[in-house]
Predict the 3D structure of the following.
Amino acid sequence: MQKPDELILEDGALQHRSIFWDEAIYEQELKHIFARAWLFLTHESLIPNPGDYNTTRMGEDNVIVIRQDDGSIRAFINSCRHRGNTVCHADAGNTQRFTCTYHGWAYDRTGALVGVPLEKESWFGTLDKARWGLRPVAQVASYKGLVFGTFDAGAPPLEDYLGDMRWYVDSFLDVPGGIELIGPPMKSILNCNWKTPTENFGGDDYHFGWTHAAGVAVIGGPLQGLSGNVPLPPEVGFQVGSKYGHCFGFIEQAAAGLQMLDEWRAEYAKWLAERTPIMEQRVGALRTRLYNGHWNASFFPNCSFLYGTSTFKVWQPRGPRQLEVYTWTLVEKEMPQALKDILHRSNIAAFGTAGMLESDDGENFEECTQTNRGYMTRQDYYYTGMGVGHEGPRADMPGVVSEVLMAETGIRNFYRSWARMMRGTPWQDVDVAATAPLARLRSV
């Protein structure tokens, strides 16, 4: 396997194609990224009561996320400590305990081993149950309802890891009542590498007018003006890169632009108009513009969302060439139920398993991975140098910000963080500003 410094070149603009195909690189990703980074687990609205749980994955590790009796949230590896069988096969529910179907070992909500068949007769009272509880996820934390976990006890606190992105996402997380996710998640399989959709959602506005031209023509609305990749004025939007690899693109005044029907757009626009004065008092004029706009965004490494299109996703890796998509609908908790239903139906139609725009993206994502089946093909690099030299810090916004919307600022930022983590470097060496260049890089 090549060294990380040979895989990502020119300050993140070149990515060696092998990182989207090779098994050895993927195993290092599981070790250096998915075993260390903060990963999205669930939303508090999905497990409101003690004993409520979701099952999900952290990399390739199956985990249970469960609300405790004291209201806190914990997570455990979903594997019996006796012979390794899965202890919870359901996606969600409420329970007092999890019981393994193989030999009947039972674990309570805290992960403690509380029941062992034939404990006296066959274990002769020697089994130390305190030692063999479910293995916990080292840290679990919530940021305004978004629940993340990390296997790394030495990882920085979640708020530090989210970094500058908190300033941006607070523009909609700080709505009165907060947000919620409508579940259960829709799930589907894509035969692509996990990085491809994550960096696309976080930093690829360039594809929208071309890939989705036909779909946008059917949907209509203000975003139809992007069809065909027409030149856009600078004030239309921008790209942002934040430390730890988080990234997003912002389109001005387009929050109601991708609802599937005109009447749905009107209902959503009405809600935003009612909330705008409240948000101006809460987060100021600039971030209220963000509240009224459309975002394509990603939390590093594998969680994405489209604010304004109401979709929230996790790209769960299944090896280097396949992933499972989890898709929820993102809404404000205080929205009328009728509006929540509208946004949910619109999300299903656009970005659900068989969604109009999801199908466009899925085909591209799969081809971008599967072309690397060829040995000579994957000896090359991808190039994402759009906008190099036309981005940097701004006095009014954190992170590195592009001058125009059509840039690959977020993608380069994503791969700079990928390379830093793949080096296995300490957290203090990963914790650098988005504007800091990736050291010791060469050109090809």
Notes: The longest helix spans residues 262-291.
